[in-house]
């Protein structure tokens, strides 16, 4: 259960490692990237969760996050979005199966044995990173789209693990959009009571993690093609307001769903978390 | 001969366009990206030339250059590295044919009709960009590896077109490395006298563009796997010293040949050119 480094790059004076390990949780090899700033640490950890179709490489090569990581002295970890491989169930569609783990533990066939991304992130990934790198054993979580849903739901369900949470264009309420309904039906079954604890807006509304996070930062492009049908940040905002949870949604004019959007505001998110990880 | 925009993204408040056009020079469709900062301009132009295997997308999505482009108010243009398509000659190797135009005008079969990247950049691309965007009609050029060779040789052979030139890990002397010897033999034939005007070190040594550029900036990772056999910045430095041309080679400790290296120092290069484009 140890990390192997498959590739190393120097970036902005820090060290970026592409890693793999045999996961006890998913029962498959898993891949991730880990960026450590220069110096001996210990450093707090920022976990990035990516969106549909992504591997660990999309964020790593396109988000431009490491300059800010050096500035603030934080480690950034980006895992793959699902188990993968020949023995792992899959679907022809881009929004189910490999590349679409949705950060839940599947209970339904054929997904149940391997698709356990909630436990993978909250149990195994955190422990592996704390064991393998000079961390302060404190961490925050952020992500994009499906990974924004992942960041919000994991932070709301596991508030003891995280100091702060933010998201880019998150799937705010997967029980009320096509992406979420499809994935949750497949992974969790037809009983919608099981879905509720994986829906950020419903979790907020029910008071999950009440009083834990001083603010939650959400950036959303108003030119995002998925805004109206899939993402629905207004449900998140309404739920937060109802629960008395401060949540800042910044509608960014003209921005779309791409990494160009994330690269434009990634510095703000790293700074948001760094202030809370060191405060 | 006009540019069509195929995709638009907002990035750092500016506008990034992926474009295509039918090239009169290559006789094929050509693709490029054009980033314009916010505001009406006119803006000076920075042309990026990419390395082997790249399209216009590698730099565009991975270099993280657009924050600095907004800061300094410059347009950045990144063309594809060669003509492409079914009717265009190609080779199975990554270092010849499509994706490997080497910024020369081929004189040899089967490359001659389409592979004319020197004329493409210096004639057609510049004119297209000046016609289609609010430019000051002044520009500089930079690039990576094969594109670093392209930037240096085009700037040295066409000093009337450019205000400044810089490079990341350029092929400093293609007549004296395997990549260059292979490409020049294929594109230009066996007569090495034809090669000399496409070799940055030999051009510098012969006094090309003497007195035009106050400095030439080169960044080179000392962990670059191609440093010793293919890139040879020491030949460039020796030639510049001999010719009395100021040339700053910064050996960057631990950095490799990847876009992680370029992303780490891209701000310095944009600032280097901006100072000379506006000075």
Descriptive overview:
- Chains A, B: InterPro entries: AB_hydrolase_fold, Esterase-like, S-formylglutathione_hydrol.
- Chains A, B: Belongs to the esterase D family.
- Chains A, B: It is an enzyme of class 3 (hydrolase).
- Chain A has helices spanning 57-62, 66-72, 117-132, 146-157, 178-188, 200-205, 227-231, 233-243, 259-278, and strands at residues 4-11, 14-22, 29-36, 43-49, 75-79, 135-144, 165-168, 216-221, 247-252.
- Chain A is of the alpha/beta class.
- In chain A, strands 1-2-3-5-4-6-7-8-9 form a nine-stranded mixed beta sheet, with helices on both faces.
- In chain A, helix 4 links the parallel strand 6 (135-144) and strand 7.
- In chain A, helix 2 (66-72) runs parallel beside helix 9.
- The first copy, chain A, is globular, with a radius of gyration of 17 Å.
- Chain A binds chain B through residues 9-13, 16, 61-62, 64, 66-67, 221, 223, 253-256, 258-261, 263-264, and chain B through 9-13, 16, 61-62, 64, 66-67, 221, 223, 252-256, 258-261, 263-264.
Record keyword descriptors for this entry.
alpha/beta; nine-stranded mixed sheet; 9 helices; 23% strand; globular; S-formylglutathione hydrolase (chains A, B); EC 3.1.2.12 (chains A, B); carboxylic ester hydrolase activity (chains A, B)
